[in-house]
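Assess this one:

_____
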Amino acid sequence: MTHPLIPSLRQARVIPVVRTTSASLAARAVEWLRGAGLSVFEITMTVPDAPALIRDLASDPGLLVGAGTVPDRAAAEACLAAGARFLVCPWVDPVVAQAAHGAGAIAMLGAMTPTEVRAALAGGADVVKIFPASSAGGPSHVKALRAVFPDTVFCPTGGVDSRNAPDYLAAGAAFVGIGGRLVDEGLLARGDRAGIEAAARDVLGLMQA
């Protein structure tokens, strides 16, 4: 059975991956990107005090917030308690998937090969994150995996941007994760809202294509 939140992610087409060296920069990224029209965000556990930020953001009913780079059950439970609606793990960890399902959240587990995709699905993945997508072979790799797993919900992340995202979607990805310029720490630290908004407009163009 498809998780009820997956249609919302399909409609969004892009999940901004917020990975910064401070919670304040992460919050700024979300504020600016939201102002540009984005409403789904993955806050990685590499952001200091990520659960606290997730709690602040998840209190807003207009946002769909998840946690990324979730390393173990303790971190998973902290993020879920804070209001995360999806958990992203770059590898196959059934324990993280179990925690997500216990809270009614989406479990997104990482894989690269067919064997790993099968393990992710067996481990409870609602979505399989293809990571790192660009070095794994890009859109052609996703297309090859989709041929073997036609009913699997794939989300490529790593080296995905507004220029190549349409190719990933055409290859069979349900949606994509984008960090890079969309969450450029240099632009955020310099207060270059225009630069972030320009990247957001590129992504919004993709969503509306």
Observations:
- The chain has a mean pLDDT of 96.
- The chain has eleven helices and eight strands.
- The first helix runs from residue 6 to 12.
- Residues 137 and 192 are 33 Å apart (CA to CA).
